[in-house]
Structure prediction request, 158 residues.
Amino acid sequence: MRELLPQAERVARLLIERKATVSVAESAAGGLISAALLAVPGASAYYIGGMVIYTRQAYDALREFREEELLGARSSTEKNAIARARIAREKFGTTWGIGETGAAGPAGNRYGDPAGHAYVAVCGPIEKARHVLTHGSDRMKNMHAFAAAALDLLAESL
Prediction:
């Protein structure tokens, strides 16, 4: 995770400068986005909370979750990443929400997406999404790539 720290530090600096807050709803990154943001000293100034929504059962466990929040989108799509970012922002009441969904590997997902495929999104004063495709099946490398892409997208959006 140490390789994510420079990106997390940049995001932290930008959030603090803007007096902004962030929350995270991630899946294939397995909590690395949140872990990277929390590894920066002073995280309580900008990081409010996060969740790893790895299964449909996890959505169902969310208090007051409404099916329409998913915008009709299956996992591992741009629309789903945006929905996750919106859910995080709404549920935690933050300036920004980060959403991530994909297939970490070593195999693809049940929808036919290959390992190393993900979408990351941010929702705040603007909304943006980005496709990540590593062309690799190494689960840990993919998880780090997804987290790095999410942090970069937030930094660019700030």
The chain has five helices and five strands. The longest helix spans residues 139-157. The chain has one domain: 2-157.
